[in-house]
Amino acid sequence: MQVDLAGIGGSALTDANIAVPTTPQSSKDAGGIPVTYVPARNTMMLSLALAWAEVLDAREIHVGVNAVDYSGYPDCRPEFIAAFENLATRATKAGVEGRPLSIRAPLIHMSKADIIRAGAALGVDYSLTLSCYQPDDSGAACGLCDSCRLRRQGFVSAGITDPTRYAGEIV
Predict the structure, then answer these.
(1) How far apart are CA 60 and CA 63, in angstroms?
(2) Are 72 and 30 in contact (CB under 8 A)?
(3) Virtual CA dihedral for 114, 115, 121, 123, nearest 10 degrees?
(4) pTM score, two decimals?
(5) 34 in helix, strand or coil?
(6) CA dihedral (11, 17, 19, 20) positive or negative
């Protein structure tokens, strides 16, 4: 299944006409939501996961949203997760038949440092991961976007060396 979020646009991550901010002050619009917010992205992803979970007769969906050290996205908040779980109970055969599905967000209340420490304890090879909103063609992170800043600060706070390849200066 393919979902083309660029077809929806409305975000610096999906619309080539909206620049990815490179300074913290420029990342939020007048309403306080960053221009990197992708409209309804987590709603769409969870909806697809919900459909698949129902086919598989799964009892849980796990999602990696975070409401502590995040960029201000409304679909990363506990209220959103609770509302989606409520919807899942009412919108699925399993839910209506009394076998509701749970939405688990184990990272939602963790700091980036706590997430990095937990991943390291589980053996995550962070050199194989990337958080950057605008990596270069070689896959190096920009070091300037909010995601790079939050990631870098998470590693610093965790006391773990950041293995991320950055294309330029880290701000």
Answers:
(1) 10
(2) no
(3) -160
(4) 0.86
(5) strand
(6) positive
pLDDT digits (tens, 9 = 90+) for 10-61: 899 889 899 998 876 545 555 588 888 999 999 999 999 999 999 999 999 9
Q: Which long-range contacts (CB under 8 A, 24 or more apart) does 77-81 make?
A: 78/105, 78/108, 78/109, 80/42, 81/105, 81/108
Type of residue found at 66 = N
Tokens of 133: 């909103």
What percent of the chain stands above pLDDT 90?
Answer: 70
Question: In sequence order, which residues have a C-beta less than 8 Å from that of residue 70 and are 6 or more positions away?
Answer: 76, 150
Percentage helix, strand, coil for the chain under 3-state DSSP, each rounded to 5: 40, 5, 55
Paired residues of 1 in beta bridges: none
Instruction: Write the DSSP string, 58-106.
Output: -SEEE----SSSS---GGGSHHHHHHHHHHHHHHSHHHHTT-PPEEE-T
Angle at which helices 78-91 and 41-56 pack, to 10 degrees? 40
d(CA 133, CA 36): 8
Quick one: which H or E segment has residue 60?
A: strand 60-62
Name the token pair of 95.
Answer: 């839910």
